[in-house]
């Protein structure tokens, strides 16, 4: 029942090559092949295998073993789970509806929002056959009399019962049959502007507008079918400035106008403008001149001003508000900036064809005038149209990120698997969003999660593959389950910390009152958590499958195979060039990220701290104090969705405020009304996460206005209103807006009748009235109201279906003008609210639930964005800090990391302010997501710093930069490319998304790389400083006082001499080396191999270059040593010995080392004769074990892919050990002894040469040690028993060989004395 299990996989076998083989990349799927001459020399591949006896169906003991041994089964299980979740999410409930992409951006749950919703519900449910009615009943007999004329009720009921029909143009032949009625809000409009920024009041400009309409609008084939027609069945003329002048001058067309006509019309307009701006000139003045007197002020207006209503309509509709205004009336030639044209076509979707074919080009000009504003009522339709067309930009942006991912990973299979993981994460998150959380609304903005998740997966994939390759480089012969376990040890810690912190930042945005932002926060936070699970399962599975089944191998061909065909020679040459480019890029990356960047960060840390701190303070001041981000000036139906230069946006944002009819429509320059409501509770009982759920109308059960105390209080309240400074008195033509006063006057005007006693109930009563009299007489008064239906709908009582008085509405005007300015509206609301709140506190019990509302829709949005955006951002930062603290359990690291994250957020917001962004709901969503997007880079560095095996802060900073900077820079550059690609989009959301991700990722990369590490250089925790320790924990991290590892880095002058003396004392007391005749004192600036040479005379962690040299060891020696020592070793120890005993002392940097890592002899021998061709093979075919030849087999040089390769990685101590670094806890292991470097095994040393001397071959030799050399002998295994649990006690005092990279120069022999101080 047992079988022999091979613990080695392709990754292990690949590390051992023949002596003449060139470096091979360790990356899965690499095409690095070794060119061998098949005719003369066959490649010899040595397989080092550790054999363990296991049961055939042994259950996996760990998650990593499950992934390594059963990758296909686990992958199939994951795919099955994803399919089940996806089907459940699609089949349960309705699919997302994106027909209204802008829905969900209204605030819900705010104080003003609840009042607005209650008022809208009140208006919605008031009318014929609805919950509430303006009249108590439709039957006069219910009041005991039949002779009451109820024209108001009958007319209103009939009007409400009739369905609304589409408003058509009426025929108005009083204007000479020229126009088909007056212009109105339902017709399409064009705004014209002078091309040279001059005035439009001239013949050429007016005729240009007429020609532009003819060529752009009326020439379209659809115009004939869409236009309104007159009695002659011809299309009606447009309402334009030229046509009005032609009407006044009795011309048939605007093309016949002359300068005299223009001048004469200007004189008439100048004379009549005064009457228009003082409110005397109204459309009804034309009827008053015909004998139907309705508006007394019209009597003083000259007849020429009322002809055809042309003057009124020109000033009201056709010209801008500044033309002939009271400020410009005295100008000799007033300037006309903008002119509006109404087309005889109703607004709506039918205008899409005309717009897309004739007006889609925004710059529509004929060199005299240009069309700069359009209002066809199709803004939302065009937005949906472009929303689909511009999807190509986010798709291209994601492709750019994926291409960057494929370029970095160099594996199409892993890239495809990551794409599958992104899709799976989104679908599983949608299942939780829809089924588990029961969200019924899925906003369009949630699709932004695709771009964010793609970047997050790219970052995670880069980190994982770098850690995987680092593990392969340091432990090439470790079995696959152990490699998966070691990689996941670091990667899982990083993923948990990064994902939890990022998702917490997104979840914190849920406190916003805007529905779309809350939905996005839940979906995005859930997606990050689900993606974390996929990254720790799906990604390792992909790499294991790539390693075991899909990796490339080499097939060797002779020289003649490549020389007999020109195409093959060309392919071979191209392959060499690509390899050269690849090698150049790898060397450049190593130089940049492993040497220059750490050096620049550490040496210039003073500059980085000051610079980024100033940026953070400046960004915080700009975004929070002055000038802050601009608040929106448009309500949601007209919210900006295109660029500011788009004609639709220019009309809504600019031109709608330039014409008087639009300003009156929006309430501009008018007094703010106040509406007081009793009987309706100001609550929002709908689903706040669904914009289509507006709740129901909730009546106040305590409402009672019939009580005498309530009557007296209402009368006093009305008097108190009139005494306030904010009250604006109404003129004598308006009816009283106080209901109780109107009712009292009606009761006092009633005359009792001796004939009909039924009418005597409401006469001869003193105020206040009894409850029954009040209820009955109110109904009678309402039924006798006049035909002023507008006043009846907006004011007075509301009755339910049973005729009971259940609500009361009062309205008055204030002295405040309507304003788009948030500060002014806020002052108005606070003042009115404070006064009304104080008054209602003194109201009787039946009226204590009253409230007020006004035109506050825009203020509600502005207030929510102005207050909640910063609050949500601060909460996200606070929650991220808590998650950082829970992840690292280090207070100092968490503080520095959150400082960098906060700086990123504030600098991003400050730049958005400088870009003049308007803080609409979409932009508020981006700002709320800034914290979540700023976490990843800083979190990666923070955890790398925390896991560093070194104890001093400078070495930790260098370690963190070397481990993570490459992947961070790649992700930042990918997001930069994605943001640039999205800039040409027409849809503003796509364009702003591109700008936002471009800025936040680049700024985050800068703050994380430079600011965070600079803070750590100054105040970073050393050893266990700042670590939160719990009494129940096993203990803190062990950093011995003697453990100043060879990789330790120092820059500060006050530490350098201290550590130098400590290092010298330690070498004198503990370890003494014989360098004959090399003993000499090195200066501080000796190590010129790195840019940090002047900072320390000790070897630098910034210049690690690991090379595994096997030219002087054979596997026979290793095999001999293992005999007799395997009894007390576990399987793990055995694997380690096999991996370590066959390797010599690691070669340190030599002053003679060339760029090529292979020896010159190998290079010369194989340059022209050894070539190979890469083919795909299965692991079973290439893992055939060949006999070992101890006399000829040599371990070749191995070159690793640039990534997280650091000889000071934590991978050296992940195997059943709590230690951080071999040299950190045992000073005697700083420079180990190699059993494979014994004199008996050494090759190439002349018999007459004396060890430790130059033997006349060279006068002097300078030794530059750049990294520590591990002792991998049995002595080191004994001393590091806590790591390897090896109780064998073997001693070897032979010298250690430092091999020279030059074949004609001797190696350096270092011998350690026996005088060692016991380790603590």
Automatic annotation (TrEMBL):
Compartment(s) of residence: Membrane
Boundaries of every SSD domain copy: 442-545
Pfam families attached to this UniProt entry: Sterol-sensing (PF12349)
Keyword line: Glycoprotein, Membrane, Transmembrane, Transmembrane helix
Bilayer-crossing regions: 70-92, 386-407, 413-433, 445-468, 488-508, 520-541, 606-624, 870-889, 895-914, 926-947, 967-988, 995-1015
Stored InterPro entries: Dispatched_Hh_regulator, HMGCR/SNAP/NPC1-like_SSD, SSD
Biological processes annotated in GO: miRNA-mediated post-transcriptional gene silencing; smoothened signaling pathway
Ranges of compositional bias, category Basic and acidic residues: 1309-1320
Region of interest called Disordered, as start-end residue ranges on this chain: 1281-1320
Major subcellular site: membrane
Lipid bilayer topology: Multi-pass membrane protein
GO molecular function annotation: transmembrane transporter activity
Gene Ontology CC entries for this record: membrane
Family: Belongs to the dispatched family.
Protein name: Dispatched RND transporter family member 2
């Amino acid at each position: 029942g047992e079988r022999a299990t091979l613990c080695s996989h392709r990754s292990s076998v690949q590390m051992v090559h023949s002596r003449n083989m060139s470096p091979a990349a360790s990356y899965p799927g690499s095409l690095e092949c070794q060119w061998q001459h098949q005719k003369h020399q066959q490649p010899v591949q040595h397989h080092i295998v550790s054999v363990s006896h296991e049961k055939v169906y042994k259950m996996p003991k760990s998650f990593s073993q499950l992934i390594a041994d059963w990758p296909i089964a686990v992958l199939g299980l994951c795919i099955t789970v994803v399919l089940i979740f996806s089907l459940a999410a699609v089949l349960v409930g309705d699919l997302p509806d994106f027909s209204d992409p802008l829905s969900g951006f209204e605030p819900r749950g705010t104080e003003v929002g609840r009042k607005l919703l209650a008022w809208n519900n009140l208006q919605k449910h008031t009318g014929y056959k609805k919950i509430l009615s303006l009249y108590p009943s439709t039957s006069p007999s219910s009041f005991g009399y039949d002779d009451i004329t109820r024209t108001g009720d009958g007319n209103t009921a009939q009007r409400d019962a009739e369905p609304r029909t589409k408003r058509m143009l009426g025929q108005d032949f009083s204007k000479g049959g020229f126009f088909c009625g007056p212009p109105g809000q339902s017709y399409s409009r064009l705004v014209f502007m002078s091309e040279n920024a001059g005035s439009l009041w001239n013949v050429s400009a007016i005729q240009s507008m007429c020609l532009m309409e003819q060529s752009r609008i009326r020439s379209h084939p659809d115009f004939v079918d869409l236009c309104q027609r007159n009695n002659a069945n011809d299309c009606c003329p447009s309402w334009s400035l030229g046509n009005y002048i032609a009407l006044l001058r009795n011309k048939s067309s605007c093309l016949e106008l002359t300068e005299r006509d223009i001048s004469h019309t200007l004189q008439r307009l100048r004379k009549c403008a005064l009457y228009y701006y003082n409110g005397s000139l109204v459309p009804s003045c034309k009827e008053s001149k015909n004998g139907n007197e309705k508006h007394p002020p019209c009597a003083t207006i000259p007849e020429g001003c009322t002809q055809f209503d042309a003057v009124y309509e020109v000033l009201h509709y056709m010209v801008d508000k500044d033309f002939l205004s009271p400020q410009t009336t005295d100008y000799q030639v007033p300037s006309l900036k903008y002119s509006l044209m109404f087309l005889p076509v109703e607004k709506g979707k039918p205008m899409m064809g005309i717009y897309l074919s004739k007006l889609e080009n925004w710059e529509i000009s004929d060199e005299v005038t240009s069309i700069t504003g359009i209002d066809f009522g199709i803004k939302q339709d065009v937005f949906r149209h472009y929303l689909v067309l511009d999807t190509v930009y986010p798709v291209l942006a994601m492709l750019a990120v994926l291409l960057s991912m494929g370029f970095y990973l160099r594996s199409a299979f892993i890239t495809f698997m990551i794409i599958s993981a992104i899709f799976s994460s989104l679908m599983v998150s949608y299942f939780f969003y829809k089924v588990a959380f029961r969200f019924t609304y899925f906003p369009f903005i949630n699709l932004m999660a695709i771009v964010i998740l793609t970047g997050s997966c790219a970052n995670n994939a880069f980190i994982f593959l770098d850690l995987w390759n680092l593990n392969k480089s340091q432990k090439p012969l470790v079995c696959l389950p152990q490699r998966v376990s070691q990689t996941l040890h670091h990667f899982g810690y990083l993923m948990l910390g990064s994902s939890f912190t990022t998702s917490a930042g997104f979840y914190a945005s849920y406190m916003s009152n805007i529905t779309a932002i809350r939905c996005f926060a839940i979906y995005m936070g859930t997606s990050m958590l689900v993606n974390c699970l996929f990254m720790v399962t799906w990604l390792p599975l992909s790499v294991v499958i790539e390693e075991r089944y899909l990796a490339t191998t080499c097939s060797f061909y002779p020289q003649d195979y490549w020389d007999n065909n020109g195409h093959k020679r060309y392919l071979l040459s191209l392959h060499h060039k690509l390899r050269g480019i690849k090698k150049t890029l790898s060397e450049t990356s190593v130089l940049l990220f492993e040497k220059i960047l750490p050096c620049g960060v550490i040496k210039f840390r003073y500059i980085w701290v000051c610079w980024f701190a100033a940026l953070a303070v400046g960004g915080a001041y700009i975004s929070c104090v002055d000038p802050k981000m601009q608040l929106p000036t448009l309500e949601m139906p007209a919210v900006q969705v295109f660029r500011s230069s788009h004609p639709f946006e220019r009309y809504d944002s600019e031109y709608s405020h330039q014409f008087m009819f639009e300003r009156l429509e929006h309430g501009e320059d008018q007094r703010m009304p106040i509406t007081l409501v009793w009987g309706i509770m100001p609550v929002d009982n709908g689903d706040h996460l669904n914009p289509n759920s507006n709740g129901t109308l909730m009546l106040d059960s305590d409402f009672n206005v019939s009580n005498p105390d309530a009557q007296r209080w209402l009368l006093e309240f009305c008097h108190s209103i009139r005494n306030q400074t904010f009250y604006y008195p109404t003129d004598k033509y308006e009816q009283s807006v106080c209901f109780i006063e109107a009712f009292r006057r009606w009761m006092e005007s009633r005359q009792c009748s001796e004939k009909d006693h039924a009418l005597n109930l409401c006469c001869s009563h003193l105020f206040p009235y009894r409850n029954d009299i009040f209820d009955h007489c109110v109904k009678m008064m309402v039924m006798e109201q006049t035909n002023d239906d507008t006043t009846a709908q907006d004011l007075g009582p509301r009755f339910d279906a049973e005729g009971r008085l259940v609500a009361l509405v009062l309205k008055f005007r204030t002295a405040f003008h309507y304003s788009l300015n948030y500060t002014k509206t806020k002052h108005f609301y606070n003042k009115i609210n404070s006064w009304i709140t104080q008054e209602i506190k003194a109201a009787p019990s039946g009226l204590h639930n009253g409230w007020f509302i006004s035109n506050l829709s825009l203020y509600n949005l502005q207030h929510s964005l102005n207050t909640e955006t910063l609050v949500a951002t601060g909460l996200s930062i606070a929650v991220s800090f808590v998650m950082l603290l829970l992840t690292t359990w280090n207070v100092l690291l968490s503080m520095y990391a959150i400082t960098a994250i906060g700086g990123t957020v504030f600098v991003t917001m400050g730049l958005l302010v400088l870009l003049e962004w308007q803080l609409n709901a979409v932009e508020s969503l981006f700002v709320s997501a800034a914290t979540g997007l700023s976490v990843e880079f800083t979190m990666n560095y923070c955890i790398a710093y925390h896991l560093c095996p070194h104890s001093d802060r400078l070495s930790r900073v260098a370690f963190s930069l070397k481990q993570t900077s490459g992947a961070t820079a790649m992700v930042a550059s990918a997001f930069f490319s994605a943001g640039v690609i999205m800039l040409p989009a027409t849809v503003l959301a796509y364009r702003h998304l591109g700008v936002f991700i471009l800025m936040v990722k680049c700024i985050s990369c800068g703050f994380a790389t430079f600011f965070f590490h600079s803070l750590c250089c100054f105040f970073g925790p050393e050893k266990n400083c700042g670590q939160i320790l719990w009494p129940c924990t096993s203990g803190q991290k062990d950093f011995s006082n003697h453990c100043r590892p060879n990789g330790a880095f120092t820059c500060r002058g006050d530490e350098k001499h201290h550590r130098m003396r400590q290092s010298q004392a330690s070498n004198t007391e503990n370890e003494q080396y014989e360098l004959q005749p090399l003993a000499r004192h090195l200066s501080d600036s000796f190590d010129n191999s790195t840019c940090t040479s002047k900072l320390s005379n000790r070897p630098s962690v910034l210049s690690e270059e690991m090379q595994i040299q096997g030219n002087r060891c054979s596997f026979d020696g290793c095999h001999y040593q293992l005999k007799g020592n395997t009894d007390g070793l576990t399987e793990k120890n055995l694997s380690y010995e096999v991996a370590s005993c066959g390797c010599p002392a690691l070669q340190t940097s030599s002053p003679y080392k060339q760029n090529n890592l292979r020896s010159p002899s190998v290079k010369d021998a194989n340059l022209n004769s050894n070539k190979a061709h890469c083919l795909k093979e299965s692991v079973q075919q290439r893992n055939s074990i060949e006999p070992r030849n101890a006399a000829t087999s040599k371990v070749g040089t191995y070159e690793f892919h640039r990534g997280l390769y650091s000889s000071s990685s934590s991978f050296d101590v992940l195997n059943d050990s709590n230690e951080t670094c071999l040299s950190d806890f045992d000073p005697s292991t700083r420079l180990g002894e190699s059993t494979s470097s014994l004199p008996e095994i050494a090759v190439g040393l002349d018999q007459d040469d004396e060890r430790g001397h130059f033997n006349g071959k060279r006068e002097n030799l300078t030794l530059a040690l750049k990294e520590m050399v591990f002792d991998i002998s049995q002595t080191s295994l004994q001393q590091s028993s806590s790591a390897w649990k090896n109780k064998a006690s073997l001693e070897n005092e032979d010298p250690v060989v430092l091999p020279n990279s030059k074949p004609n120069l001797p190696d350096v022999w270092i011998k350690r004395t026996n005088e060692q101080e016991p380790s603590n």
